[in-house]
Amino acid sequence: LKGKRLRGRLEGRVLKPYDTAETINNQGLNAPVLAWLTDPMDLQFLQIQGSGRVQLDNGRQLRIGYADQNGHPYKPIGRWLVEQ
Predict the structure, then answer these.
(1) 54 and 61 in contact (C-beta within 8 Å)?
(2) Can you give the residue ranges of every domain in the chain?
(3) Was domain 9-83 assigned CATH 3.60.20.10?
(4) Is the pTM of this model over 0.70?
């Protein structure tokens, strides 16, 4: 594995893949919540763009940005829509 960049989560001494978006959407995520979006389209645009700003209840803005790969293959939504 020399020269490879591994992505995943450690469970003890075992590297396991990150959950898929489908798993997270269906089963939730055991992690602290940073922000909650009430409009699913806002979430979709934020995920597609890779960055954005979230207006918090106290008036402050939280900048959110793409940080790294999750280890799962990229599936462009445009291609998926055409295939449907």
Answers:
(1) yes
(2) 9-83
(3) no
(4) no
